[in-house]
Amino acid sequence: ATDLDETAVTFARRGIYPARSLSGVSPEQLARYFSPLGDDFEVKKTLRGMLVFGEHDLGRRAPFPRIDMILCRNVLIYFTPALQRRALQLFAFSLRTGGCLVLGKSESVSPLAEFFTVDNSRLKVFRRIGDRVLLPPSRIRDAAPSSPLSSIRTASPFAAIRTQRPMAETHPRAASWQSDHVLLGLTVGVVTIDRNYDVRYINGEARRLFGIHASALEQDFIHLIKHYDPVPVRRAIDDSLASETLVTVVVQPLASHPDAQRVLEIGCSQIARTGEDDEVVVVLTAVDVTDREQLRQRQAGAEEIISRLTKANDEVLAANQDLSYTISRLRSENEELMVVTEEIQAATEEVETLNEELQASNEELETVNEELHATVEELNTTNDDLESRTLEVKTLEIEGDTARRQRRTILDGVEDGIVVVDANGSIILENAAYTAIAAEFDAEDATLVDEAGEAIAKNSMPIRRAVQGNHFAMTIVYQRSGTQRRFQVRGNPVTTDRGGALGVVTFREVPASG
Q1: pLDDT for 274-307, tens place per residue?
Q2: Where are the domains of the chain?
Q3: Less CB within 10 Å around the terminal CB: N or C of the chain?
Q4: Is 2-128's fold the same as 413-510's?
Q5: What angle do CA 63, 68, 70 make, to 5 degrees?
C-alpha cells in the first residue's frame, strides 16, 4: 500500500481508526480483524503483517515487478496526459500477464489501450494483455536517494573511505560515486534504514543475502525479509536506535524456504546524517556466517561427543573398579562356600546315619502298627457289645418311661393327693390332686393348723416327717379367707430295689364335722 503523502502512509501504517469510521463493518468482521484500543479500533497484527506500507511517487520512482492486482482509483484524473501515459506504462510493466488494474469511474486506459482489455466495465476493471513492456524513461535516478555515506558524519564506520582520498573531499559527486562503487563491490550486505524501517539504500550483496529482487527503496525492510524471521532483525534495529551501540544478531533461515540455507550475522549501528532535519538512520550489515555456524555446530557436536566419551570412559573406569571389588568379594564368598560345602558333606553323613536310625524306627513302628490293628479289632468287638448294651438300655428306658407314664396316669386318676419324696426332700413323683392341694397350701393368706387349732411346727409338716422315714397319720386344717378344709394325712416309708429310702405321703380331704 503506497501513497505520495507521508502523513497518509503513517496513518495507514498505524492501523488505528475511530469507531465511527467502522460503522459499515459487520460485528463479525470487526471482532475478527480489529482489536479495541480505548475508544478506537486497531487492525490486528496478523492482518497488518500481510501489508507493506511506503511512500511512492508514480512520476519519479521505480515500479514494483510481478504484481497480480493494482488498485489506483481516482489518481490518474489529477495527472497530465503525459504523466497518465507514463503511469499506465508503469502499470503494464509491473503487472503479470493476466493481472488486473482497477481504476476510478472517470478513468480509463485509453492512452495505452494496446496493453489492457476491459474485464468489468461497470467496476472499471482491466486485465493486462500483450507483450512485456520495457521500463519507460523517467527521472528515476533523480528521485533515488543519494549515497547513504555522502552525508554521514565522522561517527560513521566508513568515514575512513572518505579521508583516505583527498579527491573525494574536493569533489563531492566523485566521492559519492566512489562510495557507491565501494559498497556495491563489498562482499558484505549493507542496508541503510530510517526510523520507519524504510530502505534508504541497499547494495547488491544485501539483495542476494535477503532474497530481495524487486524495488526496495522506500519500502518497509521488515516486510521485505521473506527467508528469515523478521522479529530478531526488527529487535536489533530498535535496540540500535535506543542504545546508539552496535547490536549484532545471528538469524537462521526459515524452514518454509528450502532455497535459503544461509545463516546471517546482522549488525546494526546508529548513524547520524547531516541534512535539513539531522535524520538518524541505521546501517545494517549482513555477513554470511554459514560456514562459521556449521563449524561451530560441528565443534559443539564434537565437544558433545567428547563429553559423552569422557562420561562413558568415567563410567567404564567406575565399572572396572566395581568389577574388581566384585571379583574380590566373589573370591571371599567362594572360600566361604567351600567351607559351607564341607559342612554340608558332614551334615549329609549325619543325615545318612539318621536315615538308618529312622529305618529301624520305621520297622518298630510297623510292629506297633500291627499291634494297634489288633487292638482296633478288639475295640470294634467291644464297641459292638456296647452298641448292643446301649440298645438294651434304650429299650429299658422306653419301657421305664412307659411304666412311669402309666403310673402317672393311674395316680392322676386317684382323688387323694399323693406325693413321693427322697431323703433330701426332693419330690420324686406327685399326682394332679397333690399339685392342686400344694398350690392352695403355698398361698400367702393360707394357714395350716392341727385339730386343736394350733399352728403346725416346721419339723411336724408332713413332707418333713416323710423325709425322716417315719410312719405317721395326722389331720391338717387348711384355713383361708374364712373357709376351712380338713385333710387326713398319712406317711409311709418305702425302700427301692437299689436300697434307697423314699417317703410316700397321702392327702385325703374329709368333710368338716357338724
Answers
A1: 555 567 899 999 999 988 888 888 899 999 999 9
A2: 2-128, 145-288, 296-410, 413-510
A3: C
A4: no
A5: 60
Q: Cα separations (Å) of 154 from 162, 195, 286? A: 10, 20, 22
Whether residue 79 contacts residue 46, with contact meaning beta carbons closer than 8 Å, is answered with no
- Classified by CATH at the fold level, domain 2-128 comes out as Rossmann fold (3.40.50)
Domain at 145-288: CATH code: 3.30.450.20
Say if CB 218 and CB 198 are below 8 A apart: yes
**Helix extents (H) in 137-248:** 140-143, 159-163, 166-170, 172-185, 204-210, 221-224, 230-243
CA 412, chain centre distance (Å): 93
Q: What is the pLDDT of residues 150-176, one digit of tens each?
A: 433 333 333 333 333 333 334 444 444
Amino acid at 120: N
Instruction: Output the nine-digit C-alpha cell for 43.
Output: 487492525
Indicate left, alpha or beta for 41 from its phi (over 0: left) and psi (-120 to 50: alpha).
beta
Pick the CATH number of 413-510 from 1.10.238.10, 3.30.110.70, 3.30.450.20, 3.20.20.70: 3.30.450.20
Q: How far apart are CA 233 and CA 58, in angstroms?
A: 30
Would the pTM of this model clear 0.85, i.e. be above it? no
Write out 359-373 in H/E/C secondary structure: HHHHHHHHHHHHHHH
- What angle, 0 to 180 degrees and rounded to 10, lies between the N-to-C axes of helices 432-441 and 290-412? 100
Between CA 437 and CA 427 the distance in angstroms is: 15
For residues 214 and 64, is the Cβ–Cβ distance under 8 A? yes
Find the largest Cα–Cα distance for the chain: 187
For 68, 90, 239, 453, the CA distances from 109, given in Å and listed in that order, are 17, 12, 47, 165
262 vs 294: CA distance, rounded Å:
10
Sign of CA dihedral 209, 214, 216, 219: negative
Look at residue 480 and tell me whether its pLDDT is greater than 90. Answer: no
- C-alpha 244/C-alpha 238 separation (Å) is 10
Neighbours of 190 (CB within 10 A): 21
Q: Which residue has the higher pLDDT, 425 or 491?
A: 491
Q: Give residue for cell 383361708.
A: 480
Cell numbers linked to 199: 530502505
The pLDDT, as a whole number, for residue 214 is 74
| Look-up of cell digits 488498485 | 71
Residue 363: CB atoms within 10 A of its CB come to: 10
DSSP structure class, residue 189: E
Three-state SS at 269: strand
